[in-house]
Every structure is written in C-alpha cells, then in structure tokens.
From TrEMBL, chain A:
Pathway: Glycolipid biosynthesis; glycosylphosphatidylinositol-anchor biosynthesis
Pfam families named among the record's database cross-references: Glycos_transf_1 (PF00534), PIGA (PF08288)
A biological process from GO: GPI anchor biosynthetic process
Enzyme Commission number, as recorded: 2.4.1.198
Function comment: Catalytic subunit in the complex catalyzing the transfer of N-acetylglucosamine from UDP-N-acetylglucosamine to phosphatidylinositol, the first step of GPI biosynthesis.
Protein name from the UniProt record: phosphatidylinositol N-acetylglucosaminyltransferase
From TrEMBL, chain B:
Tagged with keyword Oxidoreductase: no
Family: Belongs to the PIGC family.
Keyword ATP-binding: no
Designated name of the protein: Phosphatidylinositol N-acetylglucosaminyltransferase
BP GO terms, sorted: GPI anchor biosynthetic process
C-alpha cells in the first residue's frame, strides 16, 4: 500500500476552456482521486471565475487572478505567481506538483517555485514543436530552463518523447565515457478515453458510406488536403457522402469547394460540434478521415476507432503509435495518396471486413484512465522516493543553460529564493489558513438531496470551510455536470 | 520493443529508452554548402546599392558646398536617363513591330517630361518645406531614412515570372530614399540645386534599382564591372570631400563584398537543423 499523496495539477489550460489538455488534466485528477490521492487543480481565472470552485466528483480548482494574453496562456513573468502558489501549496499540504503543457507559463512557474517548499515536480508535455520558427525557439528556451530542474517528465507518445527530449535537452553526460544519454526520468504515458462514451451503433441498411471528419478547420489540421480530395472521392464513389464537423479559418474554403463542385447534398457541414455530440456525429459514419499535418497523440482518431469507425489518417507525429495496423489506413500528406487510402477504406467497409463492435471491444482493452492513473502513480512514487536536488546543484544545472541564458536563469532562481524568504517573513506559515476539512462525497450527496427536497441545511459540514461556493452555484454545477465536464478537443 | 501505445501491457517500464530512440532524427537534411564565389557575386547588389547611396550623399555635399554646378548635374542626369532607358529597352525587347516600340518610347518621353516639369515647379516648395527644422534633425532623419532604404531594398535576383511580367518596386524602400532626399534638399541654397538633387534622387532610387535588378541576370563580367564602376565613383567623389570618409567607404565595400561571405561560410559549420516525425508536414495538393 503506497502512501496517499497530495497532488496539485498546474496548467493554464483547464475548464471552462475545452480541449485535449483540459480533458486530460480532469480525467487524470479524477482517477487519481479514485485511487485515494488528494488532487487539486491550479489555473488562471476565466472572466468572473476567480477563486475556489469544485468540480464533481469533489475536484477542487483554484482560479488565480491572472489575465491570459493569447490562446488562454498567461505571460511568463516568473515571480507574480509565487505569493499565490506558496499560500495554496502550503495550505493544501501538497507533496507534488504536476504541471501540464509547454505553453503554460503558470506551469513553468510552479516548477520554478516548488523546490522552495520542498515540493517535488512532474511535467507532462502534450504537444509537438519544431525548432525553426521564432515562437518555437523562444518556448523551447523557456522549456529548457524549466526542465533542467524538474524531477520527472511525462510525454503522451514516443514521438512526443523524442521531441521533448530534444527540445528540453533532457540529456545526461556520462562522467566516464563522456557520452550523452537520455535522462532516466522521461516517461511515455498515453492519453486515454472513456470507451463507454463512444459506443458503435449498427450500420444503416442502405448502401451509402459516410466519411466523418471532425477537426478544427485550420491549416495544421490539413484541411487543404480535405478540400483537394473530397471532390475526387465524391466523383469516384457515388455512394460516399461526407459529414464535416468543426469550425475554423478554413471553413470558407471548404464552403467554396462544396459550391464549386455542386456537392451540397453530398458534403454536410455541421459547424462547431460540442464534445458530448461527437459520439452521435461519429455514429452516422463508417469511415473517419484525419488529415492532420502534425499530431502528438490524436485523441480524435482514438474516439472514432472506439465508436467503430475505420480510420484513415495521415502518417504524422504520434499517430502511427495509437492504433494497430488493421484498424487504420495510413497515407502520406499528399492528395493522391489520401485518395488511394480512402479508396481502400471504402473497399474494406463495403465488403464488411471491418466489424465496428469488435473494434470497440478491442479499443476498450487498449486504453483506459485507471491504467493511465496507475502508470502515473508509479512516476509519482519514483519521484517522491528519489533524492531532491539541492539549491547549489540547481544553480549549477541552471548555469549549464549557456553563456547568456544560464546567468539570467540563475539570477531569476536566486531572486525567487529571496522573494520567498521575504514572503516567509511577511506572511508567516503560522498565520496561513490551513485546510483541515475535505470533501465527503456521501455527506454532500445527502445534503444535496435535502436541498432539492427543500429542507433547510447547512452545507458547511460537507465542504471545506474555506470554499467560496454558494448553494445555488453547487446546484448549478451538479445539474450541468454532464454537459460541463465533458470536453471538446 | 515496439513503438506503440495501444499495447497496454508492455514488458518494459514507461521510462525505458529503446535502442532505436531518435533513429528518425535527421540533422541538416537540406544542407547545401555555399561557395565563396557565388556568395561574393550575390553580395554585389548590396555593394551596388550602398555605393549609389554614397554617391548621392557626396553629390549632395558637393551641391551644398557649391563645388558642383547644379546645371552640370541636371545635364548629367538627363544623359544618364537616356543611356539607362536605351539599355532598359534593349534588355526588354518584347515588341514585335517597330511601331509598338516607337509608341512605347513616346509614352516614356511624355511621362518623363511630366515628371521633369512637376519637379521643377515643386522645387521652390521643397526647398522651403523643412527649412524651419534645425539641421541636426535633418541629418538624423536622413540617416534613419537611408538606413531604412538600404534594409528594405530588394537585393534578390529576378525570377522567371518577373522577367516576363515586370516587377513590383519595393515601395517602402524607394519612399524612404525619396523622403530623405526631400529633407536634405531643404538645406540647399537655390531652387535649381533643389531641382537637380531631386532629379538625381529619382534617378538613383526609383529608376536605377530597377535597371540593376534587371542586370542581375547578365553575365558575371557585366555585374563585376558595374559594381567596380559604382564603388570607384563613390570613393572618388568622397575623396575630394574627406579622406577619412573615403577610407571608411572602402572598408564598408570590402567587408560587404569579401568578408561577409567568408563569415557566412564560417558560420555554416554551426548549422544544426533538427528534423523528425514531429515536424509539421507540408501538404502536397495538385
């Protein structure tokens, strides 16, 4: 029996935003809680959503009052989050922080500050980056600085790990042979899905084959390839129709293509699809088409395969690792090759060689969140029992960053320490409002029933004293739980 | 060990690093080493552009010191224009009939007369336009505008499409240079000097870059001699004003033409381009 840990997930990307990272953090937290750990989430505020909120089943979320600059990421400034994080991490008795996503500056800051309180750090990278453009160069530099002193790194695919190891320079120099080896603390733990949410339904009796595309309509998702191949597929197979879900800058080009080739009755454009509707959209088709130009994991492919669709995808990033070869056809990012792959897929599906129910049962055995949580637990265990890097070694490692970045990061590190000492004097630990009560789900359930029945009750017994949640808000959260906690990508 | 995620019960821990780790990493896949001579040739447009800026500046100083008669400058400009135009039309022989060619010449003649007259009538205005501004401001402003002109100028060789369809002038660059000439013109004493300077400025910053751009496809000897010509005239014109400045110019020219390409070749050994399966694929759509 391993000891019970208190874990803080830190990321700029969390509910009420929707996406792959957001969903990952939520699902991982919930499954870790089921295993008996205590989990809180720390993110930045969204509009008037500031302070502490609870998500079912009892996940405590701190919304810090920072304003995001672009795409829901906050400006990296290293220090402003320290007063907030120190108070939260201390009062919640956190043992370990788990930061997510390399564009989340609050996550980086969490890793920078954690050692001051003796807290261990884990970082999960969710995306792939190149090495060429200015944005990548800057973020990679920031990432190297952060990952020098992190205790463990988790990547969502093998390709993602290769990318992160290069970007974050996660190498160790062997003192004797002077060769570079990959650090031992870089793990691969994939995403997962709730298979029950994506159940296949029996195919319609008609001869029509529907190809489903659900994707953000952006350049990176390869919508140009879709625009180039869809008219050819429609011309070659009179019994094939398209259903396209999603919104984005490429929607206009898609509409123009449809109009130009007079395919209004063959290609249906659904516009933005909410995550809870994805399953019903998927159930309309028998082939799922993904034309992404880069993809770290490709959860959409997995969801489609789980819903019993045959998948055709471009061979990019981590996609080839996700499914066994007999459930997916690959194509190069080339219009001709995608046409070939789709033709093969149409053949397979029309001959009935792909059994949706069998595919669903198989995917069920491949991925589940409990298993992801167990594998993550192993990482936590290793981190907690490993030796903590002391400040001097931390500074030495930071100086290895280079002749310019090294001193800058070291100064940041030292200033951070002094800022922390100042805070220790200014807001002494004894004066902090420590969390003593925790969420009791059964009590909460009882109280909710009482509230619904109209009985006057004090919710104070059920929830932590420090929370700022009112009863109507809780009711709202309970009622909207199903729609709010499921996510889009 | 297979590189797959769907096999949930692999006999390896999650931090196991397989032997083929980073086997798909490619370093410098598109690496093409430069050759010194080609880089020197490619750097000549920059030298030419800098030389024409320096020539313009020394002409301005000569005009200001009244060691150059504005009338001589005007006649020289007109002669240069005619020579350049003949060369230009010789390089762009697109007309089949002599009639169309004559029509073209007449059009060009008409617009040049128009510009000539417009400049002449505007020169009193241009002379007094920034007269109330102090000279220090003018020098600083002109320097900034010329730097902008040099940075934004187009030093590339003309593509096939440009050769057949003509090209767009880098507008911002040209405007910066002409604005610089306008502010400098206000330091001159007479209207005719202002007119001469503006005419010369339009020649060197609007028309001459077009011709130079077109000449970049010509044989190496032509480009080399043009560059040498410009560099020598810039140095010679400056030599009568200040020896130190002329040496500085010579230094700039040698470093741009001969040292900078060497530096680039030396820096190429630090090139470290990383490519792998994580890169954004380039879609091929026909």
């Amino acid at each position: 029996m391993q000891e019970r840990l208190s874990i803080a997930m830190i990321s700029d990307f969390f509910y009420p935003n929707v996406g792959g990272v957001e969903n990952h953090i939520y699902m991982l937290s919930v499954n870790l809680m089921r295993k008996g750990h205590k989990v809180i989430v720390i993110t930045h505020s969204h509009g008037d959503r500031v302070g502490i909120r609870w998500l079912l089943p009892g996940l405590k979320v701190y919304y810090l009052p920072f304003v995001p600059i672009a795409s829901s990421a906050t400006l990296p400034n290293f220090f402003t989050s320290l007063p907030y994080l120190r108070t939260i991490l201390l009062r919640e008795h956190i043992h370990l922080i788990h930061a997510h996503a390399s564009l989340s500056s609050i996550g980086h800051e969490g890793i920078l500050h954690a050692h001051l309180m003796g807290i261990r750090t884990v970082f999960t990278d969710h995306s792939l980056f190149g090495f060429e453009d200015a944005a990548s160069i800057l973020t990679n530099k920031l990432l190297v600085g952060t990952l020098k002193n992190v205790d463990a790194v988790i990547c969502v695919s093998h390709t993602g790990r290769e990318n992160t190891v290069l970007r974050g320079q996660l190498f160790e120099r062997d003192e004797i042979t002077l060769t570079l080896t990959v650090r031992k603390n870089v793990y691969v733990i994939p995403n997962a899905l709730i298979a029950e949410q994506f159940k296949p339904c029996p195919p319609p009796p008609s001869k029509t084959i529907t190809i489903v595309v659900i994707s953000r309509l952006a350049y990176r998702k390869g919508i140009d390839l879709l625009i180039a191949t869809a008219p050819r597929i429609c011309a070659a197979f009179p019994n094939v129709n398209f259903v396209v879900g999603g919104d984005g800058p490429k929607l206009i080009e898609l509409l123009q293509m449809r109009e130009k080739h007079r395919l209004q009755d063959r290609i249906e454009l659904l516009g933005p699809v909410r995550h809870e509707d994805v399953s019903s959209v998927l159930s309309r088709g028998s082939i799922f088409m993904n034309t992404s130009l880069t993809e770290s994991f490709g959860i959409a492919i997995l969801e489609a395969a789980c819903a019993g669709l045959y998948v055709v995808s471009t061979r990019v990033g981590g996609v080839p690792e996700v499914l066994p070869d007999d459930m997916i056809s690959f194509a190069n990012p080339d219009a001709d090759d995608i046409f070939r792959a789709i033709s093969e897929a149409v053949q397979i599906v029309s001959l009935g060689q792909h059994d949706p129910f069998h595919a669903h049962e198989r995917v069920k055995t491949f991925y589940n969140w409990t298993q992801v949580a167990t594998r993550t637990e192993v990482v936590y265990e290793t981190v907690i029992t490993s030796r903590q890097i002391d400040l001097w070694e931390r500074m030495q490692r930071t100086m290895e960053l280079g002749p310019f970045a090294g001193p800058i990061y070291t100064i940041i590190l030292i200033v951070d320490c002094m800022f922390f000492l100042f805070l220790e004097w200014w807001m002494p630990r004894e004066d902090l409002d420590y969390v003593t009560h925790e969420w009791h789900h059964d009590k909460f359930k009882q109280h909710m029933e009482d509230v619904k029945a109209g009985a006057p009750t004090t919710i104070q017994e059920a929830v932590d004293h420090s929370t700022l949640v009112t009863i109507p808000e809780l009711l709202k959260q309970v009622n909207t739980y199903n729609s709010e906690t499921s996510f889009n990508w | 060990m297979e590189k797959v995620l769907w096999k949930s019960q692999q006999p390896f821990p999650d931090n196991f690093v397989p032997a083929d780790f980073l086997s798909l990493l490619k370093k410098n896949p598109n690496f093409r080493p430069y050759t010194y001579s080609s880089l020197v040739l490619l750097s000549t447009p920059i030298t030419q552009h800098l030389a024409s800026i320096f020539i313009f500046l020394s002409v301005f100083v000569h005009l200001k010191e009244q060691s150059l008669d504005p009338r001589t400058l005007i006649w020289l400009s007109v002669a240069c224009f005619i020579l350049g135009y003949l060369l230009w039309s010789f390089l762009n022989q697109t007309h089949d009939t002599p009639h169309a060619a004559i029509n073209d010449y007449l059009k060009a003649f008409k617009s040049s007369i128009l510009i000539f007259l417009a400049l002449m009538s505007l020169s009193p205005v241009l002379r007094t336009l920034t007269a109330s501004t102090s000279s220090d401001t003018i020098w600083a402003l002109a320097a900034i505008l010329f730097i902008l002109n040099a940075i934004l100028a187009d030093y590339s060789a003309p593509s096939e499409k440009e050769l057949s369809h003509g090209r767009l002038i880098p507008v911002l660059s040209m405007n910066a240079a002409v604005s610089a000439s306008v502010v400098l013109a206000s330091r001159l004493a007479t209207d005719i000097a202002v007119f001469g300077l503006m005419l010369f400025s339009i020649q060197s910053f609007a028309l001459f870059p077009l011709l130079r751009h077109r000449l970049q496809t010509s044989p190496v000897a032509v480009q080399a001699s043009l560059t040498a010509c410009l560099v020598m005239s810039a140095t010679w014109l400056t030599l009568t004003l200040s020896q130190r400045l002329a040496y500085m110019y010579a230094l700039v020219f040698t470093s741009v033409t001969f040292c900078a390409p060497g530096l680039l070749i030396w820096a190429q050994k630090y090139k470290n381009e990383l490519r792998g399966p994580w890169d954004v694929a380039v879609p091929r759509v026909n």
